[in-house]
Amino acid sequence: MDTQAMHIANGIINGPVSAIFLVVAVAGLALCVTRAKTDLDDRLAPMAGLVAAFIFAVQMLNFQVLPGVSGHLLGGTLAVILVGPWVGALCVATVLIVQCLLFADGGLTAIGLNITNMALIGTAAAYVLVAALLRVLPRNPRGLGATAFIASVVGVVVASMGFVLEYALGGTTELSIGAIAGTMAGVHVLIGIGEGLIAATTVVTVARVRPDLVHALRHFRTASPQVVKA
Q1: Which residues of 12-26 are buried (b: 16+ CB within 10 A; e: fewer)?
Q2: 57: helix, strand or coil
């Protein structure tokens, strides 16, 4: 099994399970589209395009984790903080679809699996953590950076556990579930640290220059006048 990237290739998960998660992915994205309509405005729409472009660009640059193992930014936490969970999930899904169709990064038959793991599960986990952490950490760029780092690490690991579940349901190799779960968790903690550093640096920079463009800070603005102070 190739562990060089989060993307699942064709044939790793059998056809019936892949089809089930394609349905899950379509249903999840349909919900995101419906909910995103209430969030999108003249400010958020162009920001969503920039977020998707940034995630796409950074995902093309793999970083070495271990010999033979590399990783890249998944983007769920970054997207959640900058454009919110619904639009954020759509940004990540768009990147995954383009990568699959144009660069064969992730199998076509596994597109539902990859979208479920990275765009839905990973983004949902990041959103839960971001919402919780910004209620206890300072609502300023420093607190936002810490939130981005923690949520990135956890979100990446949770997304990788989506693959473990899918493999348990329809894996096509003889590897044990325990071995896969241990390897995926260990490797993706390291990947999450790399992602956390990138996400934290990015959102702190945006928050200091244009805090009005950070969805997570705007959400708390009415509750605390201190959200934009460094």
Answers
A1: bbeeebbebbbebbe
A2: helix
Radius of gyration of the CA atoms of the chain, in A = 17
How far apart (Å, rounded) are the C-alpha atoms in residues 76 and 95?
A: 11
- How far is Cα 99 from Cα 105, in angstroms, rounded to an integer? 5
Residue found under tokens 């995630």: 55
pLDDT, tens digit, for every residue of 189-214?
988 998 899 999 999 999 999 888 89
Structure tokens at 215: 């969805």
Amino acid letter at 81?
I
Nearest CA among 128, 100, 98 for reference residue 113:
100
The residues, any chain, with a CB within 8 Å of residue 166's CB and separated by 6 or more, are 8, 13, 17, 21, 113, 116, 117
Long-range contacts of range 131-138, CB-CB < 8 Å, 24 or more positions apart?
Answer: 134/216, 134/219, 134/220, 138/226
Q: What are phi and psi of 191, to 5 degrees?
A: -60, -40
pLDDT tens sequence across 147-170:
999 999 999 999 989 999 999 999
Please tell me the distance from the alpha carbon of residue 65 to that of residue 194, in angstroms, as a whole number: 9
Instruction: DSSP for 134-165, please give it.
Output: TTTS-SSHHHHHHHHHHHHHHHHHHHHHHHHH
